[in-house]
Amino acid sequence: MQRWRGLEDIPGDWGRSVVTIGSFDGVHLGHQLIINRAVARARELGVKAVVVTFDPHPSEVVRPGSHPPLLAPHPRRAELMATLGVDAVLVLPFTMEFSKESPQTFVRQVLVDALHARLVIEGPNFRFGHKAAGDVALLAELGRAADFEVELVDLQVRGAAGGGEPFSSTLVRRLVAAGDMAGAGEVLGRPHRVEGIVVRGAQRGRDLGFPTANVDTVPHSAIPADGVYAGWLTVGDERMPAAISVGTNPTFDGTARTVEAYAIDRVGLDLYGLHVAVDFLAFLRGMEKFDTIEALLDRMADDVKQARELTEQS
Questions:
Q1: pLDDT tens digit string along 31-76?
Q2: Which of 170, 205, 210, 229 has its CA 20 to 30 A from that of 111?
Q3: Closest to 221 (Cα-Cα) out of 61, 72, 22
Q4: Cα–Cα distance measured from residue 252 to residue 259, given in angstroms and rounded to the nearest whole number
Q5: Which of 273, 252, 240 is nearest to 204 (CA)?
Q6: Of 152, 177, 210, which one is at a domain's C-terminal end?
Q7: Same domain, yes or no, for 146 and 9?
Q8: Residues 196 and 88 in one domain
């Protein structure tokens, strides 16, 4: 799969495309419906399937400080899209100047001149252009004049998560913030993931016999509620069952909120400076302050036992 940063990265001989546009944060099941449809139609038409997205999040440019919690950084989104059969991902740098472009300018520069769109696949609530002035009706009108069609995909994907409301990135963020990893996983179609570089912490876990990877997470990451979780720690191609702690370590009067993962039954791991991924499978318990180290160790041993059992069953 090709990855482009800006219109200038698109090959000059790029042919016709089936295109879909959006933030696609999390690439949840609703997003997957749209992307799968774009890929299927591209194969039918004998052209390439292209996903167009933006960086940074448009709200951060238009309303600084309003960036929503991030469900997946752009490299992760691209990996997920590649598994769905996408041929190329175009990440457009979102600037204040870009935000002021009219819907007509966006269609001409991106869909017509750069990607030679033959078909555009979108959800019914799609908006684009300055102040979100463009909607699917305008997109279809512009498409008729520019020789591309517009096809809508019904996004009313519903499940038990969130009381049966439609799947959305907003719903996933709410479930993650509440520590509902089962619900978030239902909407995403996989466990929620947090990524970052392993840095040195207080190293208490090593002293206690449970050495943890202290993850300096990607900025704006959607971090689950404070507590202990079962999941996995992934380094490169190796995925290891893990007990994961999110919080301030109240037993030691900590103040900084951290994400720490203990790779179960692994000895001698040296992960400092490496990029890792932490996948959250299930919530085990809330964060607690223990009166003694012995009580903490007993609870940690139980956490590890539960995490081992849950990951083995999944």
A1: 999 999 999 999 999 999 999 999 988 887 878 877 899 999 999 9
A2: 170
A3: 72
A4: 15
A5: 252
A6: 152
A7: yes
A8: no
**Is the torsion defined by CA of 290, 295, 297, 301 positive or negative?**
negative
Q: Which residue has the tokens 């809330």?
A: 286
Residue 16 within any structural domain of the chain: yes
- Hey, CA dihedral for 59, 65, 71, 72, is it positive or negative? positive
- Nearest-angstrom CA–CA distance, 73 and 75: 6
Judge if 126 and 199 occupy the same domain: no
Q: Is 170 a member of any domain?
A: no
Higher-pLDDT residue of 258 and 158 is: 258
Expressed as residue numbers, the domain containing 69 is 2-152
Tell me the three state secondary structure of residue 255: coil
Residue 234's identity, in one-letter code, is T
**76-113 tens-digit pLDDT:** 999 999 999 999 999 999 999 998 999 999 999 999 99
Query: Is 91 in the same domain as 231?
Result: no
Is 213 in contact with 245 (CB distance < 8 Å)? Answer: no
| Residues 146 and 196 grouped into a single domain | no
Distance CA 261, CA 79 (A): 23
pLDDT of residue 139: 97
Domain boundary among 152, 183, 213: 152
The yes-or-no verdict on residue 6 having pLDDT over 90 is: yes
